[in-house]
Amino acid sequence: MTDTDTDIAYVVDVSPGSGTLPPRAWPPASDATRLSLNGSWRFRLSPYADADTAFTAEGYDASAWDTLRVPGHWVLQGQGRHGSPAYTNTPYPFPVDPPFVPTENPTGDHLHTFDLPAHWPAGGEAVLRFDGVESCARVWLNGAELGEFKGSRLPHEFAVTGQLRPRGNVLAVRVHQWSSGSYLEDQDQWWLPGIFRDVTLLHRPEGAVRDHFVHASYDHVRGTGTLRVDSEPAGRVLVPELGIDVASGETATVPVEPWSAEQPRLYEGELVTDGERVRLRVGFRTVRVEDGLIKANGRPLLFRGVNRHEFHPETGRTLDLATMREDVLLMKRHNINAVRTSHYPPHPAFLDLCDELGLWVVDECDLETHGFHAVGWRGNPVADPRWTPALLDRAARMVERDKNHPSVVVWSLGNECGTGEGLSAMAAWIRERDPSRPLHYEGDRSCKDTDFYSRMYADHAEVEAIGRGEEAALDDPESDARRRAMPFVQCEYAHAMGNGPGGLAEYQELFEKYPRLQGGFVWEWIDHGLAHPEFGYAYGGDFGEELHDGNFVCDGLLFPDRTPSPGLTAFKSVVQPVRMDGDGREGVVRIRNLYDVSDLSHLEFAWAYEKDGATVREGVLDVPAVGPGGSVELALPEPPRRDPDAETQWTLRARLAKDTAWAERGHVVAWAQLPVEGGMQPPAPGGSAPVRAGGRIALGCGEFDARTGALLAVGGLPVTGFGCDVWRAPTDNDNGMPWVAGSSLAAKWRALGLDRMQHRVEAVEPRADSLVVRTRVAPAASDLALRVTYHWISNGIRLALRMDVEPEGAWQVPLPRLGVRLGLPAAYDRVTWFGAGPGESYPDTGAGAMLGIWSATVPELQTPYVRPQENGARSGTRWAELTDGVRPLLVDGGTFAFTARPWSTRELDAAAHRTDLVAGDTVWLHLDARQHGIGSASCGPGVLPDHRLRPGQEQFRVQFSVRDSAAPRRPA
Ligand code: IPT
Q1: What is the mean pLDDT of residues 467-487?
Q2: Which of 642, 728, 869, 928 lies at a 20 to 30 A Cα distance from 497?
């Protein structure tokens, strides 16, 4: 071993570090002085861990170094000069050889010079705090080494009393991308080294609070809260609003309003010691598992949750306060009541926001060893006692930091670590330190270290079996019995990768039906697409990584820029805490309150009576303050005169009656539509006789190719590429799970050739007053086919199509879609339609889409999935009008899904990034009788049987007409 080897031995040492202070509560607002050391630092990157340490000496001249923003990841700064991000899901991007890491270990040296502010107090002590450094840091102050640590998303503090001077302090931090700690941080995200959270210097006055623990429980029978604040050193605990003034360690019990995610009642208080006044924000709540249920304040919980990684497209895991707040506000506005901090404790300010705005938090430890799966879990750190101190250190740093947050109701040991004694040791330590919160861990089916049964991506049938308590036995009778007595939560489900997830509503029905099923957490909150000059948003492989997992990192309910995806809009509707159903014809609505604690008095219920999509009357319903779990049946107002020719419906909206901390008055919490009459489709117009001229056949306002029978024009508007279409650019869910053989439906589709169907024209048959075109549509090298017959009729103004489809042969796979496709001039770039909208919807998605009249430009109809794929279908469409502003094309005469895009399906299919898609001279219009559902097979179950498009006999009708824009929309 050389000298340098000894010097860097700490990098691969499995111990958590040395020189740091014991963990303690996140320093809340207090009157003690603090100095943020965030800002512009000097930075140098070396390819190896043993670069010279001369920079740590006093007087080192770093003026030639780069500058870097701290907090930040060096790979996301410096325009590529500092290496690149890399993405893997489960595989370690280095050999599985614990605790060793590659010799090529990017090492970032950071230097920062600072003065103490004039008001920095004399005396007392000083602490240097790092809130997050990935993956390992060694620290020097004014030339003296302080120590080193690992545990990227956990705080570390050093005592620096006596080492500070008024001016010219030099802080030197060496950060290694890889360390033994990397084996514990294999969390399916970008590998992003750096000092990515705040660095702070804290003054600690004599007698300041070293640590404090707020115990605030709620007795729902008596309506009282009990507060005890343990403090070191002792002090006084004041909560003026409650008249509490007790010594630390003493208990006060008083009547209070409890804290809950729905009503996050916080009481302002203070802990006063000889040296410091610390702000307390006390939320009284008791969470426990009893009678086989997770209960908060005596009531069973239903988690409408999401998994949240910390992510920003420009700054990676460095998040500013505004972004954290935006996350919480977006969650609240989308009816989300819970968040799992997958898979590490978040920036502590995020938890303050959860306390304040109300979210149930599953706080997860910074721990995942998933990559050991690839080697049969050999050498898994959680099963190797040498790593137990590191695991305990991580557990303690999470619990101590976050223990005073009322929002944190569950501790999670980590994610995907297999099983092992290290986890049991963590659980035992946490139970001892904080028995007030239930424990979660998904990866051990024996559930020996957890308080409830948790799974990920279990399909609907299995979830139902669990709900009934009829799940299969798994291991020893003792574990089986323990698990069966436990409540159940899906810690991950409904993988939100690309278009989807499908099947949300069916999960929610189960969660609401079986008490044992206490909800779940959608995977995941936001796409981790990194802003990229060439690709728009980059995913795995875009930085030239040798090993990567592609766009599996883009699987969130938000796009990278935090625009809600259709999946989030759907989730909001599926989990809405108020349900309105009933019989529109009878004019009766049943309103159910699904809140945990709130009655309905904070909502205003608006009704609208709509005819063919237009509101003809509206008003506000008088709804009593029904309590949680209750329901009421109400009569809707007397509808205006019935109009059997029109399509009529009630639209009901439950809106906030007053401003809240997270949304303004009028914000729609829940809605429903109750149909009244079905309306009538315009009858098929007949009369015109086909006329052959040149290579064309004219039929009323339609023109056709005499050889192929393809539509060439309608009302003089040229049409290209007309024909039956079954292909869609596969979604991520169609592509399935790369690691599960046979899970890709898209691979089956491509093997069969559904992306390259050939159309053989069997007959073009002019009849007395119609044109019939018979075709056989089939892929090369197969004898499977669809017999497709187009029946056309026209009265000179409208052109009607009936397409009959008859499958031939033994089809084993569902079709992607079934409908017609046609190309229009690019100027046809605006659409108004009566159907579901404004967003996209597929058979098993789009619960957020309402029936109404909507307008959008063709670019606006595109859903910007980071990896391009099928998107943008508007289903349940009664009519759609595309226009160039002069001669609108109306499509009606049936109920269909339409999709309009400025590029073809082939181009969409070939694109890897949004920037590959360039609008051409054609708007491609798809009119589908049906689409195959979406499912969530990118990680989870496929499309449920009801939503599969099985090839079968099909009859599809639509009509086309072109008018001058001045003429009425619906011609004769
Ligand atoms: C599961 C992981 O817990 C999560 O981090 C993420 O990778 C998710 O899947 C998929 O995006 S693990 C999976 C193999 C079931």
Answers
A1: 93
A2: 928
Find out whether 941 and 494 touch, Cβ atoms under 8 Å.
no
Domain locations along the chain: 3-204, 211-288, 289-570, 576-672, 691-962
Which CATH number fits the domain 691-962, given the four candidates 2.70.98.10, 3.30.70.100, 3.30.420.10, 1.10.10.10?
2.70.98.10
Strands of 535-664 (E only): list them.
Answer: 536-538, 578-583, 588-593, 603-611, 614-621, 631-635, 647-656
CATH topology of domain 289-570: TIM Barrel (3.20.20)
pLDDT at 679: 85
Which atom of ligand 1 lies nearest, measured to the CA of 524? 11
SS percent in the chain: helix, strand, coil, step 5:
15, 35, 45
DSSP state of 398: H
Give 473's DSSP letter.
P
213-222 pLDDT, tens digit per residue, is 999 999 999 9
Residues facing 259 on adjacent strands: 264
Examine the pLDDT at 2 and tell me if it is beyond 50: no
Q: Would you say residue 110 has pLDDT above 80?
A: yes
Same fold, 576-672 and 691-962: no
User: Beta strand pairing status for 224-232 and 251-255?
Assistant: antiparallel
CATH match of 3-204 with 3.40.50.720: no
Q: From the CA of 89, give the closest atom in ligand 1.
A: 7
Cβ atoms of 914 and 864 within 8 Å: the answer is: yes
pLDDT digits (tens, 9 = 90+) for 717-756: 999 999 999 999 999 999 999 889 889 999 999 999 999 9
Catalytic positions: 416, 492
User: Does residue 939 have its Cβ closer than 6 Å to ligand 1?
Assistant: yes
- Which residue owns the Cα nearest ligand 1 atom 13? 939
Q: Is the CB of 732 within 6 Å of ligand 1?
A: no
CA distances (Å), origin 160, targets 56, 112, 127, 938: 16, 15, 5, 50
Does domain 211-288 fall under CATH 2.60.40.10? My reply is yes
DSSP 75-98: GGSSTTTT---EEESSS-SS---T
d(CA 580, CA 224): 34
* Residue 243, both tokens: 């008249």
Task: Give the integer Cα–Cα distance in Å for 583 and 676.
Answer: 8
How confident is the model over 864-919, as pLDDT tens digits? 999 999 999 999 999 999 999 999 999 999 999 999 999 999 999 999 999 999 99
Question: How many A from CA of 864 to the centre of ligand 1?
Answer: 23
Rounded to two decimals, what is the model's pTM? 0.97
**Spatial distance between the Cα atoms of 325 and 311, rounded to a whole number of angstroms:** 13
Sign of the torsion formed by the C-alpha atoms of 593, 598, 599 and 603: negative
CA of 86 to the centre of ligand 1 (A): 17
Q: Evaluate: CB of 523 within 6 angstroms of ligand 1.
A: yes
For ligand 1, atom 7, the nearest C-alpha belongs to: 188
CB 718 within 8 A of CB 712: yes
Q: What is the pLDDT of residues 675-691, one digit of tens each?
A: 999 888 778 888 899 99
Secondary structure E strands in 262-372: 267-272, 277-282, 287-290, 293-296, 299-300, 303-307, 338-340, 360-364
Would you say the CB of residue 669 lies under 6 angstroms from ligand 1?
no
CATH number of 576-672: 2.60.40.10
Whole-number pLDDT of residue 578: 98
The verdict on the CB of residue 188 being under 6 Å from ligand 1 is yes
Per DSSP (E only), the strands in 751-848 are 757-766, 771-779, 785-794, 798-808, 817-825, 830-837
Instruction: Find out whether the beta carbon of 493 lies less than 6 Å from any atom of ligand 1.
Output: no
Rounded to an integer, the average pLDDT of 374-384 is: 98
Position of tokens 């040791």? 425
Going by CA atoms, what residue is nearest to atom 9 of ligand 1?
A: 939
Indicate if ligand 1 lies below 6 Å from the C-beta of 522: no
Q: Whose CA is nearest to atom 6 of ligand 1?
A: 188
